[in-house]
Amino acid sequence: ASLLAGCSKETTGPGDTDDSRIPITFTLATPGSEGVIYPRSATRATHDAAEYAVRQLTLLVYDATDTSAPKFLRKHDMTSDITLYDNGNGTYTFSLEAPISDMNAKRKFVFVVNDDAAVAATAAGSAEADLHETAATVELADGDTADKLAEADAGIAMSGIARSNSSDVVTITPGVKCEVSLRRIVARVDVQNNTPNLVISSIELLNAAPRGYLFPHDPVAAASESYITEAMNAEVALGTTYDEQKDLKKVFYLYERHNEDGNGAEIKITYTVNSSKGEVVVPFRKTSDTREFVDVERNTLYTVVLGNGDPVTTNEVKFSLRICLLY
What we know:
- The chain is mostly beta strands.
- It contains two helices and 18 strands.
- The strands form four sheets. Strands 2, 3, 6, 7, 8 and 10 form a six-stranded antiparallel beta sheet that branches. It has a four-stranded mixed beta sheet with strand order 4-5-1-9, with no helix packed on it.
- The longest helix is centred in the middle third of the chain and has 4 residues, at 116-119.
- The radius of gyration is 22 Å and the shape is elongated.
């Protein structure tokens, strides 16, 4: 694919010239889809595109003179003055030119990807902490399908903060380079049918969070606790045979939420085995070691595995839950 020019200028005051600017280069890395980074030459399935695509990008610049309370100065986006170079392997670069008045100033560069609307009204002088309380634009209603969080034209919302010299407070000097590790704000659920005489009939996500924050909270929290039932990804074919259900990827995208005994998200799977119908409800809970509940956390892949590879003779199906952070 052809590449576009990737240099833009910050909006500055009267009297500034091209000779009175400070170049800054940003390299962005998007998270992998399977815990690995795809080579650029690899073929990606159509429904995979939303997992790595950058459809929108907003850079919010904060004055970090007071590092404990950075204040919003200005923003840049792809509709005005940012153009990305695609480097392949899920990485991009672009450049900005800061005004000479920024020389040696302390700045924070905060990125929101695929959700310009959420930060469009960020007010001058507002605190960075306010941004961390901002919810993503997409809100799920009861019964919505998971692909609403990963529409091909919109992409999955991601966020990140630039770092330079291992610090997220950047001192502006000529040629400073910044790196940004983006993280999806949603988690993902895959389902593997590992029981040869079992056929899955339906899968739904119970007690899912309808909204999520642009940036992570500690402890993990949902942006809304009016929990819903989320339907499986409409872009994923469930199939009607065991062979078609061995490895169902991207069954759900879901917002973060805290889980505990009696109050947590669950994956409900109905099935037929030996001509008998049944169901299993899978909590977000370790299936080994301590059996403790785990939160739904952004940019994390949860894989439900039904069975151990052998046919079952009764209508009791065991499962396991695997958890993998997508770097």
